[in-house]
Amino acid sequence: MLFGKTIAALSLTTALVMPMIGAIPAAYAETPPNMLVVAHRIDDLISLDPQEMFEFSGTDYANSVYQTLVDYDDLDFSKGFGPSIASSWEISEDGKTYTFKIAEGLKFASGNPVTAKDVEFSLRRAILLKKTPSFILTQFGFTEENLDETLVAKDDSTFVLVSDKKYAPSFVLNCMTSAIASIVDSKLVMENEVDGDLGNAWLKTNSAGSGAFKLTSWKPNESLTIEANPNFSEGVPAMKRVIIRHIPESASQRLLLEKGDVDIARNLTPEDVAGLSGNEDVKIATDMRGRIMYISMNQSDEILSNPKVVEAVKYLIDYEGMANSFLKGQYVVHQAFLPLSYLGELKDKPFKLDIEKAKALLAEAGYADGFDVEFIVRTEQDRLDIAQALQNNFAQVGINASIVQGTGKETLGKYRARDFQIYVGAWGPDYPDPQTNADTFTHNPDNSIEAKLTGKLAWRNAWAAEGFTERTEAAVQESDTAKRAEMYVQLQEDFQKEAPFAIMFQKTEQNGLGASVEGFSMGAAITGSYYGKVTK
């Protein structure tokens, strides 16, 4: 049995599906040594199809169930990407053709061999389905019409990718590590195709991968269960089963962790993290994540388009004060659009709270007495706390700021329609390459309202990004990695001075782990979590 002793399996199952009523005997509360139970928020999951999912929980799932052509070391991301399904690759002299050799002996969980035909099927499928994350691949010029020339299996062990122009190899290969580039079992998927959907309906609730685990069950807003893949090329995981429970409240996650009912608590507040200190049965793991918290100013607004006003706002933010109080343990001060650990990272923090400097800048701009302005902010506690702190600082220089709250849908609707003055929000990378953020913060090829480039933050803020757009396009094509990194550093330095954005913080994540849990990866700033190397 996967659970070990029958009584342990029955006891844990009871604890998982029934509300907690009083104390559970310690002998029954402990999870079996070959099973991992995780408390997490997973209500964002919409589909388990890797060529469709575009949610944080989806990336976690894909990392454990699927493999990609190339990938990162799950416990040491500093090594960069390396072989996975592809054992090696070559790049043509013109920089457009990538030839991948498929590793020998790989098998899907079904037992079917992994071949270049599966790679061809998976990447073409991503283009043909036209789901939300497809842009990660279509940006290389792949279209429904040219797939026979651009994504081709030459034989079972050779796959060729041809882009529309030369790009930085690191850009192309980084995108090949994303969830949408997951390689699926083409034979199994097509056995479950219905009405030409390429198996999409079936794969929403089933798995067809070659990763460390395979899907057992998914109960939306309740639980997700995966079990060890006996055919996994890197060896069968020590955890024979992983159960991710949807527990949205931090206090509940903490209680379950303290009682031994879960091994990992993924969404703890700073208060609950502090409350666990001194507990010898629990340890706190902290990792830097890729999410950036920022505010931005609509450049179609007469006052906010004044460069002196933009600069003044950057000196009205108490970066350290917020990071050391209500954001402690959740965010650190960061003032560049690329997350730390990305190629081209910039650690410089040129701004700090300086009320007198802000007053002087506003006087130079002609607004010595201040002005009225409106923040739009999603109804989430950390963002509301930030908005209120900003409101208090703005008041010290005569700026009367009102806060308009809304759901994510409501605030994003206004933001994407340029119907706002100041936006308080967050941005997370879509793939582990600097282009993912540069493309949205510093690239705006058409600033007209008709262009509707809503995926670009520069466009949403009506910022033309003159000069930045051309430099961003050059950086993504630079094949010399060191030179490319320096191009992004310079972009960020100039962005800090000129752009109508004030980058404030980078997300840190604190997870509570049982004392015996080892080998768990949160994914750092570049990807989602991974359970394949966990032991306890």
Structure description:
This protein is α+β, with helices and mostly antiparallel strands and 536 residues long. The chain folds into three domains: 1-49 and 211-281 and 515-536, 3-Layer(aba) Sandwich (D-Maltodextrin-Binding Protein, domain 2), CATH 3.40.190; 67-200, Dipeptide-binding Protein, domain 1; 288-508, Dipeptide-binding Protein, Domain 3 (Dipeptide-binding Protein, domain 3), CATH 3.10.105.10. It has helices at residues 6-17, 26-29, 56-65, 116-129, 135-138, 147-150, 169-175, 186-191, 200-203, 250-259, 270-275, 307-314, 319-323, 355-365, 381-395, 408-416, 435-441, 457-460, 468-475, 481-498; strands at residues 35-40, 70-72, 81-83, 86-91, 97-102, 151-155, 158-162, 213-219, 223-228, 241-246, 264-265, 282-297, 331-333, 372-378, 400-406, 422-427, 501-514. The longest helix is centred in the last third of the chain and has 18 residues, at 481-498. The protein is globular, with a radius of gyration of 24 Å.
